[in-house]
Amino acid sequence: MENKKMTLAELNQKKRAGEKITMMTAYDYPTARLVDEAGIDTILVGDSLAMVMLGHSSTVPVTVEEMIHHCKAVMRGTQSAFVIGDMPFLSYQVSVEKAVENAGRFFKEALCDSVKLEGGSEMADVVRAIVRAGIPVCGHIGLTPQTATMLSGFKVQGKDAESARQLLQSARDLEEAGAFMLVLEAIPDLLAARITEELKIPTIGIGAGKDCDGQVLVYHDLVGLFERFTPKFVKRYVNLSPMIREALLQYKTEVKNGTFPGPEHSFVMKPEEAKKI
Ligand code: KIV
Asked: Cα separation of 100 and 248, whole Å?
């Protein structure tokens, strides 16, 4: 029997009921299956895949084509979670028309349930147009990795009253434009709490403290599969890289010394049959 799909109404209800919302990134079929089976509410096919899956040094180079490819695999592995496809850099900034067209590819080709895009008040018109086309949009403010260079690097945002006020206004504008959810990345906990209290739509924090309506982490950070750097807000629940390294070394040794494959991994043939070959 198929599991029931998470809906926007249920996500809103969780906020009203004070029930925390869970979000996890996934970029491929087996991970999507694991995340979905764990009962995580929402899956983000984040453009972080540029770094953790494709080895780029930032999220900027990933293309719509590459994102769609990964989104399709995630959709094949997902039954219940609400899936958000992340729109990559320059797929929504050039014009409103282009943004709607590209959002449409995530929705119509990859069959994602929604899209996410980075940016504050300046993106309100783009959000409004995509929502008008019938595609749910998740906003993303605070530290926005696609434009980290403009922010002078990967730094906590909204630390002083003036920049905090701007972020609060961005949150209001994105809600007013029709966003169904807002990711708050790397902002002080008190600011995240203030935004969360004021908005009717759920907020999902990453490095934004405990008072957001939900939390998101990058899967590769959570399971220890990305070793280049670990931001302060990451909690590594398991460290798979050393375990995988150990398994690979053991495999190499066993192939070289002839202990793999053993009889239990081989197909037997009666010796008298073998003689007739
Ligand atoms: O791309 C991503 O994984 C993200 C999360 C860090 C929120 O945007």
From this structure: 45
Domain that holds residue 33: 8-238
Q: Which of 218, 219, 222 to mutate to test the pocket of ligand 1 (most atoms within 8 A of CB)?
A: 218
pTM of the model: 0.96
Both tokens of residue 234?
Answer: 């990451």
Q: Can you give the pLDDT at residue 2?
A: 64
Q: Is the peptide bond before 261 cis (omega within 30 degrees of 0)?
A: yes
Please tell me if the CB atom of residue 214 comes closer than 6 angstroms to any atom of ligand 1.
no
The SS3 call for residue 166 is helix
Residue 235 has pLDDT above 90, yes or no: yes
Task: Give the DSSP letter of residue 4.
Answer: P
Q: Does ligand 1 lie within 6 Å of residue 218's CB atom?
A: yes
Which residues belong to the active site?
A: 185
- The letter for the amino acid at 119 is G
Let me know whether 189 and 253 are in one domain: no
Domain count across the chain: 2
Residue 124: both structure tokens together:
């309100």
- How would residue 232 be classed by pLDDT, with cut points 50, 70 and 90? very high
One domain for residues 227 and 267: no
Distance from Cα 32 to the centre of ligand 1, integer Å: 15
Residue pLDDT, tens place only, 40-65 = 999 999 999 999 999 999 999 999 99
Look at residue 124 and tell me whether its pLDDT is greater than 90: yes
